[in-house]
Design a protein that fits this description.
The protein is mainly β and 711 residues long. Helix content is 7%, strand content 24%. The strands form eleven sheets. It has a four-stranded antiparallel beta sheet, with no helix packed on it. Strand 2 and strand 3 form a beta hairpin. The radius of gyration is 26 Å and the shape is globular.
Length: 711
């Protein structure tokens, strides 16, 4: 059967700009406001620090009787809601805090406006606004060197192997993790706010940035079920965050059967009444179009009975085992419970197609046959990971290295989940070049714009799969893999054909295309690196395609982590200049086009049935110079001048998008927050090492501070 090609869908420059503007605008949450139009606030929080404690009463008293600073939000200072600011307000608050008196009137916790209009107003209350415009941070230092890394205020609990979610208004929420090589977990939560800083400490290099780990009453925010590691955290449609699965540590302890939901507006958790269908860890989760969360695979827990008698009659106790599972389940916000994933209209379970399931894998969204990301026909790719052996051969813990211990096998197979049929399909036409275990990632290149610069739609059908290692020698998987999806319209998942886009001549899909020493020709093969122990991050990038027309593309930023490469003594950890400098994958920069075509940004010359969009892409080093169409800026900075992150080593941390100067998340001036991390990738028995220092820093991506879009 001949393969049908998707229609070439083009849009005018004006319509593309309108579409992109709509995409960016829809991601910004306006400040919470009440019915009277005033900014929402927390009653009793006189100093507007997001907490309600003794300092608020002192602040009000200083204002009333010592000519102190006026409350930023008069409504918030009006603790008894009588429409006046006087002595009765701090008295009411102190009675509530220390004498068991009644709580201040609403709003009590949520950022709602004043339900009782009066002469007071609230024009500014920072805790209930979206991220404030960030201070200007220079890309270059006083010597003109690219120096984009800035340490922030320190985390209250440095950690790694945690999860992070953005609140609806753009605040990073860090949850759980470990700081002790996986042998113990963390139960606390921290929120990063770059609108202020701790006045009692020296101002951080990032100028602003503070980590908040308490609720509105000043009490620590923590899981109610205890520490968690290797869980997933997903934002629900109403802005709350569901935390599911995981375990207190990576040893033989039991998995968490109950999930918890965190409310960012209340800064507190509640435990769901019901349990997961199957407690699991090291699974993947994705948000479906109806608001439900799909949990895919992972490791579950069994009891392994001793099979052979021990000489001398010594009794051998049963031990826990953690095999992988093909079973999947859904969390339904509407029903507020977990449901077994079944095929429509039946009681038959819908399972992964790998016989024993998989864990340590990646899951990511792919545009469906309509070529539009975010529509009802979207699909989900599942790639990488390993399947563990069962019975008495199952892994005895949750540490990395099951493959190394002979208790699992790596997976290169790719599966696809179709929400319309609730079925997984194992692809026979495409697979990974090698195993990717221990947190590989799938990044969609159409996340911020479905169009190529010359107006062809379908970037949402293009995914980059990167990161991970082999779980045996612990060597990282060299290079990223690029796949394009086309659809015949016949067969499972609408006849999906996942086409690998190879680039072997210049190996530009491996980080190192700009790695020195320079060669007479473009040939980076001797300078390649691979990265794991970190997550790539999709960011919007402004660019000019024709004079006067500004568009947005998706850049994939890759920073921190570790490069583990083969050596005579085995795989060794490397924290080379390229790892500390970082790199970006630019889908519209092509080294083959630069050599053989009219321009490195020429896509048309590469379009074919195997590459419908003509996208090849290239990893570019974060050296402050963005290569232009004539290759100006390519290999223009020597390694000794590359910017290095403040932390010499940062593994198992998280890279998080952070609003830039415009105060809006998912716009071209976004920055990267490097949060947490450890100092060592580690072997199969321990991971993480000591927490990285500084515990967090901000990366200003090249070109993000410029008012002129990139060429």
């Amino acid at each position: 059967m001949s393969q049908a090609q998707p229609p070439v869908m083009r849009a005018s420059a004006a319509s593309r700009v309108a579409i992109v503007a709509g995409l960016l605008g829809s991601s910004w949450a306006a400040p919470a406001r009440g019915g009277d139009g005033t900014v929402g606030f927390l009653r009793g929080d006189s100093n507007a620090d997001g907490r309600r404690n003794l300092t608020d009463a002192v602040f009000t008293l200083a204002h009333l009787f010592q000519a102190g600073e006026a409350p930023p939000c008069a409504d918030a200072a009006d603790a008894n809601d009588d429409g006046k600011l006087d002595l009765s307000d701090p008295v009411r608050l102190l009675s509530y805090l220390f004498q068991g008196g009644p709580a201040p009137p609403p709003p009590l916790s949520r950022c709602h406006g004043d339900p009782t209009p009066d002469a007071l107003d609230c024009s500014k209350y920072p805790p209930c606004l979206g991220p404030s415009p960030a201070p200007w941070l220079e890309e270059r230092n006083e010597r003109g060197e690219y120096s984009p890394y800035y340490a922030t205020g320190e985390m209250h609990r440095p950690r790694y192997m945690f999860e992070v979610v953005l609140s609806k208004s753009g605040y990073p929420i860090v949850l759980g993790g470990s700081d002790e090589r996986g042998y113990s977990g963390i139960d606390t939560v921290e929120v990063f706010d770059q609108s202020t800083y701790d006045k009692d400490l020296p101002r951080p290099p990032s100028l602003t940035g503070i980590w908040i780990d308490t609720d509105f009453e000043g009490d620590p925010v923590a899981f109610k079920q205890g520490p968690r590691m290797r869980f997933t955290a997903d934002r629900l449609p109403d802005g709350r965050v569901i935390v599911a699965g995981g375990a207190p540590d990576l040893t033989g302890t039991s998995l968490h059967a109950k999930a918890e939901i965190y409310d960012p507006e209340l800064r507190r958790f509640e435990v769901l009444e019901g349990e997961m269908v199957l407690p699991r860890c090291r699974h993947a989760s994705v948000a479906l179009g109806d608001g439900s969360i799909l949990y895919i695979g992972g490791q579950n827990q069994i009891v392994v009975m001793p099979e052979d008698p021990v000489p001398g009659g010594m009794q051998v106790r049963p031990r826990p085992g953690f095999p992988t599972t093909p079973l999947c389940e859904l969390y339904s916000p509407r029903e507020n419970k977990f449901l077994r994933l079944t095929l429509p209209g039946t009681e038959r379970a819908s399972e992964l197609q790998t016989p024993h399931g998989r864990a340590g894998h990646a899951a990511g969204r792919l545009a469906g046959p309509d070529g539009s990301l975010g529509s009802t026909d979207d699909l989900f790719l599942v790639a990488g990971g390993f399947q563990a052996l069962t019975g008495r051969f199952a892994p005895a813990g949750k540490f990395h290295g099951a493959v190394a211990r002979g208790r699992g096998e790596p997976l290169s197979a790719i599966e696809v989940f179709d929400p319309q049929t609730s079925a997984f399909t194992l692809l026979s036409s495409a697979s990974l070049l090698g195993p990717r275990i221990n947190d590989p990632h799938i990044v969609n290149l159409g996340q911020f714009n479905d169009f190529t610069p010359d107006g062809v739609r379908g970037m949402g059908n293009l995914v980059l799969i990167t990161g991970g290692n082999d779980d045996a020698s612990f060597c990282t998987t060299l290079g990223a893999e690029l796949f394009a999806a086309t659809f015949t319209g016949f067969g499972p998942v609408q006849g999906l054909q996942l086409l690998p886009i190879r680039e072997d001549q210049f190996t530009s899909h491996a980080e190192g295309a700009e790695h020195f020493p320079p060669a007479p020709q473009i040939d980076p093969r001797d300078n390649l690196i691979a990265r794991c122990g970190t997550n790539p991050l999709a960011l919007p990038r402004a660019l000019v395609t024709v004079p006067g027309v500004e568009e947005v593309a998706t850049w994939v930023v890759s920073v921190a982590g570790v490069d583990i490469s083969p050596a005579p003594e085995g795989c060794v950890e490397g924290f080379s200049p390229t790892v500390r400098a970082g790199a970006v994958f630019d889908p519209f920069f092509s080294l083959p086009a630069a050599r053989f075509g009219p321009s490195p940004r020429d896509l048309a010359s590469h379009r074919s049935p195997a590459n419908p969009l003509g996208v090849i892409g290239c990893w570019l080093t974060l050296d402050g110079a963005i290569p232009t169409a004539d290759l100006t800026g390519f290999r223009s900075t020597a390694p000794e001048l590359w910017a290095r992150s403040a932390a010499p080593r940062r593994v198992y941390g998280r890279n998080v998008p952070l609003a830039g100067e415009d105060g809006r998340i998912h716009t071209p001036d976004d920055r990267v927050l490097l949060a947490g991390g450890g100092e060592s990738f580690g072997g199969p028995d321990w991971i993480g090492g000591e927490p990285a220092s500084p515990s967090a820093e901000i990366l200003v991506v090249p070109g993000s501070t410029s008012a002129t879009p990139s060429p």
